[in-house]
Structure formats: structure tokens, C-alpha cells
Amino acid sequence: MIVNRLDCDELHARVDALADLLVDTVDGGASVGFLAPLDRAEALAWWKERAVGVAAGQLAVWAAHDGQRLVGTVGLAFPDKPNSRHRAELVKLMVHRDARGQGLGRRLLAAAEEAAAAAGLTLLHLDTETDSLAEHLYRAAGWTRLGAIPDYAAAPDGVLRPTSIYFKKLGSAALAG
Description:
Layout lengths: L1 E5 L1 H6 L1 H13 L12 H17 L2 E7 L4 E8 L9 E9 L8 H15 L4 E7 L3 H8 L3 E11 L5 E10 L1 H6 L1
Parallel strand pairs: 4-5
Antiparallel strand pairs: 1-2, 2-3, 3-4, 5-7, 6-7
């Protein structure tokens, strides 16, 4: 598997594959902000809107390829306030159902964490559906769970589910904390 960061042009070039991944992720039951069934046109539009954030430096997106197709992605969303430039939010970690169980989620997570640390960020945070497979991944990768918010978001089937909040200190902050 090859994991690389996408610039704006690369995101545009891969928007169809990214939309397919998003549809597969939602159809597979992952809670990434959309309800099932997700219309492919809606998925395309959502990814095209992300290109604006990538171009502005507000969002970083990594994609994983298995040699033939795009099978995973993750992003870091950067705050625009001066008092929060030391942190970012991990967003939309997705692995195609056909590529799960091969450590790809962990590789994508590590790529985002390493890039964040290299950029001087000292704190990452995220939210994920409580008791999901993703939550187990974050725990195994050393993220700290703060707690859960009941009925926070609807799963793809429309049922309200709790969401767990996590953080991870990076670099020297991790050693001090």
C-alpha cells in the first residue's frame, strides 16, 4: 500500500475514487457524517468542497492506494484561530471494506500523526462513534478517551448513537504529558 498526501490538483484528479470510497464507507455502516444510502453525486460534491480547504491550507488529506485503486483516506483539519495553531482535528479516516483487516487504518493514522508532529503540532483530537471499530483502532494507537456524548450523531441507518472524544499529545508534549 502506498500512502501519500494529496495536494489540491491530486484531490481533484482522484475525486471520483474518493467519492466511491465515501459511499462504500457509509454503505458499510461507518459513521462519518452521512446517512445511507449516500448518493454518489452528494459524495462527489462533498469531496470537491474539500479541495477548497486543501488549497487554503486548512485541510490536509492523505490517500492510500493498493496499486490499482484508492482504498483509504484520512485528513487533518487545522483551526484558523491564533490560540489553536498547535493542534488539529483528525477527520474522515476511511478504509474500503475490501481493504480492512490489513493494518491500513493504522498506516493512515500514523501518516497523519507523523506529519502533524513534523509540522510542530503538539495535540490532535477527534470524535468517533462509541464502540465502533475505529474506536478500537484509536485506543490501540495510544489515543486517550475523554468520554462520550450520548445521542451525538446519527449512524448511517439514522439511529442516534453516542460519540467518544479522543486526544493524543505529540512530540515533546507527549513526553511531558
